[in-house]
Amino acid sequence: MRANTVIMIVLAGVFGVLAVVLANIWLANQRSAMARTEDVQRDTVVVAAVPLKFGDTLSAEKLREVAWPSGAVPAGAFKTTKDLLAGEGTKQALQAIGTNEPVLATKITGPGQRATLSAVLAEGMKAVSIRVNDVLGVAGFVFPGDRVDVLLTRTVRSDEGDKSFVDVLLQSVKVLAVDQVADESKDSPTVVKAVTVEVSTKDAQKLTLAAGAGQLSLALRQAAANKGEMTERVTLSDLTGDTPEDVAKRQAELARQAAVDAAAAADRKRADDKLAGLAQAVERVGNKLDDLSKVKPAPAVASAPQAKEIVKEEVKYVKPEPPAQATVRVFRGIKFETYEVPRQK
After folding, report:
1. How many Cβ atoms from other residues are within 10 Å of residue 85's Cβ?
2. Residue 244: its pLDDT value, please?
3. Which of 93, 148, 173, 304 could form an S-S bond across to 218 if both were Cys, CB 3.0 to 4.6 Å?
4. Which residues does 67 contact at the CB level (< 8 Å), separation at least 6?
5. What CA–CA distance (Å, rounded) separates 44 from 52?
């Protein structure tokens, strides 16, 4: 027999013995662990026998009792199905509960209570709805149970021009429902028109006021990021990266334009005042003419006829007397002479 064959047989035997020893050790440890487990005090906890979603009615068929270590029973858990279903009226699930997940008091309604949004609200919190669209609502990827930041975009008008800016209004706000769906097990994105969030009374006042002051939009946060962070206002200058000199130059141009507009407005006001004065003068003249046209002339009173003396004139022809002298003209040579001689009767 070759030496290599002998060596392989020896090694196989060694490894076989080693495997048997290790198997015995593992079995001994398992028996010890089982013995220690049997010594631990046990209790029962009610878990879901089937997956439950928001609004599902609880019944004995959907629940079952499982063994649970006494020292590790979750707060709000029920020991028996009878305890969970006790009371008048049915109980409903307030959130998604997976199979074999303990059914806690905070995840279900009270006896006869409906699975409404008011039952999900924490103590002292309010539910406020925000109108959104396919862009402002993060393209429909916001679901009940998510955390979002609420952003407010505003435009303020002044003499120096319009100024637009964005502020972070609220941080880490819990989403209770999208549209009219409050089921946290919903996982398909849909475009919604409204998102209902859980806020305090003061934050509810802020949201209501901000809805009329500008445009609200949502920013989805990481599921584990519940802490607030330092934020600052973002303006148009932050987008363009203007330098202080650019801002000063633009402000000077705006001031110059404002002065020109003010001068033009003053000229227009003076012209309007003159036109208004002329209109008032024309109106006064028209009123006087109207007053004069309304005055009726006094009726003329005829006087009594007076007697007049009639004078009758007579015209007589009186033959004039002939002149006493007559004029005689005599031409002598080249000279013309005139003589006055007595007229003979």
Report:
1. 16
2. 58
3. 148
4. 42, 43, 44
5. 20
Domain boundaries, the chain: 42-115, 118-236, 242-284
Give the amino acid at 9: I
The pair of three-digit structure tokens given for residue 138, joined into one six-digit string = 């993060």
Question: Best-predicted range by mean pLDDT among 203-207, 220-224, 251-255?
Answer: 203-207
216 pLDDT higher than 60: yes
What is the architecture of the domain spanning 42-115?
A: Alpha-Beta Complex (3.90)
Enter the DSSP assignment of 81.
Answer: H
pLDDT at 220 over 80: yes
Cα gap 191→132, rounded to integer Å: 9
pLDDT, one tens digit per residue, over 82-124 is: 888 888 778 888 788 888 889 888 888 877 666 666 777 778 8
pLDDT score of 237 more than 80: no
Q: What is the DSSP string of 187-210?
A: -S----SEEEEEE-HHHHHHHHHH
Q: Which residues contact 46 (CB under 8 A, 6 or more apart)?
A: 63, 64, 65, 77, 78, 79, 80, 81, 83, 84, 102, 103
Q: Which residues of 214-245 are buried (b: 16+ CB within 10 A; e: fewer)?
A: bebbbebbeeeeeeeeeeeeeeeeeeeeeeee
